[in-house]
# Entry
Amino acid sequence: MRISELSRRSGVSIPTIKYYLRDGLLPPGRATAANQADYDDSHLRRLRLIRSLIGVRGLSVSATRDVLAAVDVQQDNVHLLLGLVLGVLPAARSDEGSGSAAPHGTSDAADTDADVPGLPEVAALTAEMGWETSANAPAAQVVAETLETLRALGVDFDWHSLLPYAELADRTAALDLDQLTDASDPLQQAERAVLLTVLLEPALLALRRLAQEHHSAQRYGGG
Amino acid sequence: MRISELSRRSGVSIPTIKYYLRDGLLPPGRATAANQADYDDSHLRRLRLIRSLIGVRGLSVSATRDVLAAVDVQQDNVHLLLGLVLGVLPAARSDEGSGSAAPHGTSDAADTDADVPGLPEVAALTAEMGWETSANAPAAQVVAETLETLRALGVDFDWHSLLPYAELADRTAALDLDQLTDASDPLQQAERAVLLTVLLEPALLALRRLAQEHHSAQRYGGG
# Structure
């Protein structure tokens, strides 16, 4: 296809495509004339992946180049490929309000061991779930920080309280992986992983809000 | 208790407590001397709620005053109370990257009906789930926007694809509501609703990431 069709089908403007070509993010097309090239579906898929990494994930152009290079090398190792694409995603953090950090010096014991005091609790949780996960994954830190924050705010909630939530997260992740199996090649799989992991996040939280509204109405409403 | 103990137990500094007292967010204590007052557990609970609304939820002082005033009036209507506390929360949005908005004019039909074209799909989803929810809730808009964005990016994913996720969100919300039942009074229930709804959000997404890592290892790893 010509660059105009590539632009139309990918939703990426021609100047941006030319920028990606100059920058090496997108491999050159097959030259058909002095100033003309032919592009195929692999260009379209790569363009969509670039767009999802930069546009949706908010990666920089250079970070995107690193991920794409790794994707090229890891085409036959789906786990590493997904790990790269999913692993580069910094885990979500709560945007805590200003001026209300947890008070210092209020914990009973002096917690000076790990970076985040709650990490051993998260390790207990993942062990209980039978999850093979890296102990210091950013996501583990987020869970640990949440437990610490709730404790600092006087909420009675520990890793045991998280267990039923972890069970549901486990099923959600299984669903997520199911979404990737019908992808035709590693590049497409990587793209779907980024799109579905990142783009579904706000939707999953929103579904929880809608369901909360429903359950609240069921339990306390009417009358 | 004296203001110093109130400060210690709530984790809110004395100057901040005095500011809330002057501003009317916190009702005055019982005067015990010319310049001294006595505070009770209701002050402590209200202070924690203020802190969770301002600090955790990021509400402004005036929005917090509105919510607190409504909480006072709705003490005996738990559904309205939770709706207030949960409903004031703007639904999470994806922080889309800059300069990569969905292209204009690429949809087949001219979608000029609703604010968000995906809303009828969300209505179909909530109907299928049997959820009693407000059709124009911010959360419904977020789900609709997600479906639109995925479509614009060429991902084959519609409201039917969201159904299994909605089932899991339904169970998550039921768990959320369970967490509130052991709260002793409406004020505490409102506080827990804010804390657990907002603070658990990043943790739930992080648990999904951990579970994704595990499932990816299970399906594609090793060897």
Remarks:
- Chain B is about 65% helix and 5% strand.
- The CA atoms of residues 67 and 84 of chain B lie 7 Å apart.
